[in-house]
Amino acid sequence: xxxxxxxxxEFFDEATNTFETIKPQHLQLEHSLLSASKWEARWRIPFLDxxxxxxxxxxxxxxxxxxxxxxxxxxxxxxxxxxxxxxxxYIETPQTATTFSSDRASGKGHGYGGHHQIITTELIxxxxxxxxxxxxxxxxxxxxxxxxxxxxxxxxxxVKKKRSKDSTxxxxxxxxxxxxxxxxxxx
Length: 187
What we know:
Elements: E1 2-5, E2 9-13, E3 18-22, E4 26-29, H1 33-43, H2 55-65, H3 81-92, H4 101-106, H5 121-130, H6 142-183
Antiparallel strand pairs: 1-4, 2-3
C-alpha cells in the first residue's frame, strides 16, 4: 500500500472564476487486480496492454486505487507532478524478490509470462481460480500477484513434465515385460 499526504492545494476554478483551496488529503492507494478491474470496467480497455495512458486515464486509475473514504474528489485533478511520479514509481516497482532467468536475459521486469496476448483482469481471475489462488489476493500489489501466477505456471509445468516422464518409463517397462513374455526371454 502506498500512503500519500497531499499538501494544501490552491487552484483556480475556471467554472466559477474563483480560487479554491483543497485541504491536505491522506490517500491510501493499492495497485491491485481489484483496482485494475474497476478501471477496466469504466474504460473498457485492458489495463495491462502496455500502452501509454492519457492523463485522464491515469487520474481515474489513481481514483480506482484509493481504498480510504472521505477524500475530496477534486484533489485527483490537481495532484502535483511529484506525487504523480511517486504513484507511478509505486505502480512500476515489483513488490517481490522473485525473478525469472528469462527476464534477466531479456531485460524485462517481473510480469505475466511474456506472451503476446491481451491480458484482461478476467483472465487473471481465471488464472487465480485454475491455480487455487484465493480471491482475497486480488488486493495484493498487481506485480506480486502476476509473479505468483507465473510461478504456479512454471511449477505446474514441471510437475506435468515429471508425470509425463514417469508415465513414459512405466509404459516402456510394461511393453518390455510383454515382449519378454511373448518371446520367452529374460531380457
